[in-house]
Amino acid sequence: SNIELKITKDGVYNFEMWTKDEAGNNSSTTITKKIYVDKKAPSNILIGYTDDPSMNELETGKVEDYYSQPVKVTISATDFNSGVYGFKYTIRGEAGDNKDTGILEATKMNDVYVATMLINPEYLGGLTISAIDNAGNESEKLDDRVFVVSEELPTAPTLIVTSKDDILTSGQWTTQGIEISISDSKVIAGIAGYEYMIEGEDVWRKCETVVSKQNATDDKPSNINVVKLVLTEDQEETYLFRAISNSGIHGEISRFD
After folding, report:
1. What is the rounded average pLDDT of the residues 192-197?
2. Which residues are paired to 178 by β-bridges?
3. Which residues of 184-219 are buried (b: 16+ CB within 10 A; e: fewer)?
4. Which residues pair with 199 in a beta bridge?
5. Which end of the chain has the lower number of beta carbons within 10 A, N or C?
6. Cα–Cα distance for residue pair 104/166, rounded to 1 Å
7. CA–centroid distance for 33 within its chain
């Protein structure tokens, strides 16, 4: 005859099974079986970054984090039954030479399971993370904040120099003050601002007057589009201009004599 046992609760169960005939004699063979039951997915998924050693809950937000060096991402979760096998991840956005998707095998540290991955430049996007336990249960997918890893130099800015309504070229004199429009530097991290320097002074100054800027969104970094510099005093100087990326990289130089 057959006996059916139904297990409804998570846990570890040890069974010993044998047969008994109608005369009451037990079989000479005993079968021992250990059964693991785990129906709950891992929980308490946390993430931390290279420059942020504290573990933070994953959250979706605007592009607000910028790095110029490879970023170590640490992911952790708990599972008090079968334990966490690993973390499934998908990279959203421009991944560069980073793998688009994969599974990170977890290591147990006390009661927490941890895995790490390295995000290399050039990168703009976020991570979708889920945890998988050894029974095959998968947690809900969580989307973390979007961030940038970029060591790229911004391109040289475009300069448009005007005096009243006239456009000036390098070396051209004018009796009026001039206005220099600085714009169009490109880099994956976005432009944090523009600087200028009078050649020979070795001191870079920030272009304070912002004409146009783009705020960060959930898939694009903030960007200073256009700034201007107004010169009213008599002078005969060469001006150098460069952009700074949101990850702190100084760009290529444009000059105006």
Report:
1. 96
2. 231
3. bbebbbbbbbbbbbeeeeeeeeebeeeeeeeebeee
4. none
5. N
6. 60
7. 46
φ, ψ (nearest 5 deg) of residue 232: -120, -20
Report how far residue 129's alpha carbon sits from residue 126's, in angstroms, rounded to the nearest whole number: 10
Residue with tokens 């070229």: 169
Distance, in Å, from the CA atom of 117 to the CA atom of 98, rounded to the nearest integer, reads 10
Picking from 178, 151, 190, 139, the residue whose alpha carbon sits closest to that of residue 257 is: 178
**What pTM was computed for the model?**
0.72
> Across residues 194-203, what is the average pLDDT?
94
Query: pLDDT at residue 176 above 80?
Result: no
Structure tokens at 91: 């990279």
* pLDDT tens per residue across span 128-170: 899 999 999 999 988 877 788 899 999 999 999 988 777 777 7
139 Cβ neighbours under 8 A, 6+ residues apart: 41, 42, 43, 45, 77, 130, 131, 132
* Predicted local distance difference test score (pLDDT) of residue 175: 63
Distance separating alpha carbons of residues 190 and 94, to the nearest angstrom: 14
pLDDT tens profile 109-126: 999 999 999 888 888 888
Query: Bridge-partner residues for 130, per DSSP?
Result: 88
Across residues 86-105, what is the average pLDDT? Answer: 83
Is the preceding peptide bond at 122 cis, omega within 30 degrees of 0?
yes
pLDDT band at 187 (very low <50, low <70, confident <90, very high): very high
Pairing assessment for the beta strands 123-133 and 84-94 based on DSSP bridges: antiparallel
Using alpha carbons, select from 12, 7, 6, 8 the residue that is nearest to residue 81. 12
CB atoms within 10 A of CB 36: 12
Measure the CA–CA gap between 70 and 120, rounded to whole angstroms. 5
